[in-house]
Amino acid sequence: MGPVLGACAPGGGSGADESPTGPAPGNVAASNLEQIGPLASADANGLRLADGFSSRIVARSSQQPVNASGYQWHAAPDGGATYPDSGGGWIYVSNSERSVGGGVGALRFAPDGTLVDAYPILENTRRNCAGGATPWGTWLSCEEVARGQVFECDPFGRDPATHRPALGAFKHEAAAVDPATHVVYLTEDETDGRLYRYIPDSILGNGRPDLDNGVLEVAEAVGGQTGAVVWHRVPDPTAAAQLTRHQVPASTPFRGGEGIDHFDGVIYFATKGDDRVWAYDLTLGELDLIYDRSGFASPQLTGVDNVVVSPAGDVLVAEDGGNLEIVALTPSGAIVPVVKIVGHDRSEVTGPAFDPSGTRLYFSSQRGATGSSADGVTFEVSGPFLA
Asked: The domain spanning residue 298 has which CATH number?
């Protein structure tokens, strides 16, 4: 089979992405990734990039990204997102997937790209793996542990993080929000994990959805790998007596839910157990496959993990293992390596996120060249991602 199925090719849904990291409605950019050349030899930072792209290291675990901040960048950097700051700057947030003393750190950039501040926005949680940006400008940080929780964080660090137990107690991986309805979609990193959605009871006076009162549902893919999806209410989201994935026998298991993102009316997510990338069309209520490793004799993309969609609709997938690459599935169906990390064989690629302009891509090598979570490295790659 080919990598992308036309019905749910990237950007093929309806609606417009209004998230802090996405394009304005009706203003979708054009991809340039199919025009970039092969990846060159590794640069001084250990990254193989195409011609016209450049890199820098913006943070290292156990070191201060900004000396005046007094804040040491966290170990085991994982999922991340960016947010526009006043005056043209931006903020990149990054989870810490530590079993003890996890949380979220933030890097603040000036309009010219200068790193000006670093600080924590969540502390003392457990294995904060991925998460998701919300259309109202917060970060949902997810705990990847049994009966793990979700915490809503302020990227600016002004408001304390808020525990959101209504989003379910399970081995959370990542979250994505439909900007039209404020429904939250959630993946579960278990070999028989489920796909969930949270429907808020109401929209509050500040325009945000109520993340404390709502309904958690679990998906049943009645059409199998492709086709219609029906949703069932999870009787007990707290999982006090029974794990959420076992509460609805009709629900469909997915082999290790990983990254998830929304773009143009479609929810994209990856499953690591079978190296697949899925697309759920919000308008049609149908599930499709856009990438399946088993369809290739020599697959370019393996070890699928974190997912981010570019402003042009490219689905970028970070590899946990594989070739330690970030690989793009383009709107027309091409499979394009975007960056490869060299010399970090005991690590994984985490946290891909574009800055608000779509010209800078942030990501981390979670365990660096040594394979230790204390030696994570966070990169910025600049270049012509967009035409």
From this structure: 2.120.10.30
Q: What is the DSSP string of 26-61?
A: T-PPPB-GGG-----S--TTSEEE-TT-EEEEEEET
Give the pLDDT of residue 28: 67
| Spans of the chain below 50 pLDDT | 1-9, 11-27
* Tens-place pLDDT, residues 4-44: 433 344 544 333 233 333 333 344 689 999 999 999 999 99
The residue written with tokens 């009645």 in the block is 222
End-to-end CA distance of the chain: 28
Check residue 12 and give its pLDDT.
41
Q: 218, 245 in Cβ contact below 8 A?
A: yes
Distance CA 307, CA 260 (A): 6
Range of the domain at 230: 6-29+39-370
Look at residues 90, 72, 145 and name the one whose alpha carbon lies nearest to residue 376: 72
Query: Residue 167: how many CA atoms within 13 Å on its side-chain side?
Result: 31
| Residue bearing tokens 């590899």 | 319
In a domain, 379, yes or no: no
How high is the pLDDT of residue 10?
54
Cα-Cα-Cα-Cα dihedral sign, residues 305, 308, 314, 315: positive
Query: CA 142 to CA 51: how far, in whole Å?
Result: 36
Q: Indicate the number of domains in the chain.
A: 1
Q: What is the pLDDT of residues 67-79, one digit of tens each?
A: 989 999 999 999 9
Structure tokens that stand for 335 in this block: 């499979």
Spatial separation of the C-alpha atoms in residues 307 and 365, rounded to whole Å: 15
Q: CA–CA separation, 34 vs 69, rounded Å?
A: 40
Assess if residue 375 is contained within a domain: no
